[in-house]
Amino acid sequence: MTRLLTLTSVxxxxxxxxxxxxxxxxxRANPPSLxxxxxxxxxxxxxxxxxxxxxxxxxxxGRAQDTYNASASSTQWAQFVPTMTPNLAILDSLDTVCGNQxxxxxxxxxxxxxxxxxxxxxxxxxxxxxxxxxTTYLAVEADALGITNxxxxxxxxxxxxxxxTYSLLAAGALSGVTDGVAKDEDGTASLTAFPYLxxxxx
Length: 202
What we know:
This protein is an all-alpha fold. 39% of the residues lie in helices and 0% in strands. It has a domain at 46-171.
């Protein structure tokens, strides 16, 4: 009986949808309003790695990340630079060589990590549309900052974005630092088969 009622309910809903008096033109002219933004994902790993990552207070840490995710306008993003800068100094030491992080000033001084924190705060992905090779996450940003390449950049489902992010933050390179997770245990993403991503966790 439960299954019958469920199927009947679905049938009624479909019928109501099919008989709606609202036209396609009406829906296009009056799109639904969006609520408060709860997430943004330009460059993977930036919020995780650089926005208050070493705070032992889980509540405060979560609040800082939520504030970052809710920042919908790029005019607000500069507010995160002072928070990111000291964390970049810690990440620069991961490979035991301080100063080889991307854009880090050569010698220890105040403001050594300001340039990179400013770049990361501009949380947008850039794509080189003249290139047909797309294998490297953050390639366009890296090329603009001195790591020469002709990749289109962007971010495909096959990118190990966390490894590439930590490599840039720790060693100023597009590879070399890993989080130890070689692949998704649930399967492999695809560039050709929809929906492209691996099967979600149950």
